[in-house]
């Protein structure tokens, strides 16, 4: 009950935190690049279909631009965020993994990585897809 008197909630006391600010920066930047690559890919597919149906040069430029953006954001995501690990179990957060996924971990559009990336950017906390433990996007004191 002491945590209620101090104005803290019980879940914030149990959340795991990162050791260094550098890892936290890589997680946030990798998450942002992953979301941008997902959005660019979602925009590229309709642009490509539109180009096939209309055969206009203007739409081809937009499609090539969306493809270049998708590849650029995807490569940036791979370089920055691929090696970011969970502070507790050291499982990859936004990288592909061979580990079994926790039943507590949420999915978004069928992707654990997208759920982690969106929660990191919007909420500042996430649930590890490997161990299922809640983590906060902060450094330890």
Q: What do these coordinates show?
A:
The protein has one domain (17-139). The chain has five helices and three strands; from the N terminus they run ααβαααββ. It has helices at 2-5, 10-14, 21-54, 57-81, 112-122; strands spanning 16-18, 125-127, 134-139. A three-stranded mixed beta sheet has the order 1-3-2. The longest helix has 34 residues, at 21-54. The protein is elongated, with a radius of gyration of 19 Å. The model is unreliable at 1-12 (pLDDT under 50).
Blueprint (SSEs and pairs):
Layout: H1 2-5, H2 10-14, E1 16-18, H3 21-54, H4 57-81, H5 112-122, E2 125-127, E3 134-139
Parallel strand pairs: 1-3
Antiparallel strand pairs: 2-3
In short:
The chain is mainly α and 141 residues long.
Structural descriptors:
elongated; disordered N terminus; 3-stranded mixed β-sheet; 141 residues; mainly alpha; single chain
């Amino acid at each position: 009950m002491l945590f209620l008197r101090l104005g803290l909630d019980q879940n914030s006391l149990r959340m795991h935190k990162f050791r260094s600010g550098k890892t936290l920066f890589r997680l946030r930047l990798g998450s942002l690049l992953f979301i941008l690559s997902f959005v660019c890919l979602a925009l590229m597919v309709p642009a490509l279909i539109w180009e096939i149906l209309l055969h206009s040069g203007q739409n081809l430029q937009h499609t090539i631009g969306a493809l270049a953006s998708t590849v650029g954001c995807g490569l940036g995501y791979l370089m920055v965020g691929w090696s970011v690990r969970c502070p507790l179990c050291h499982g990859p957060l936004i990288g592909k993994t061979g580990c079994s996924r926790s039943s507590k971990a949420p999915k978004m559009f069928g992707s654990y990585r997208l759920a982690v990336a969106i929660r990191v950017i919007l909420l500042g906390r996430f649930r590890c897809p490997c161990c299922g433990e809640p983590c906060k996007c902060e450094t330890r004191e």
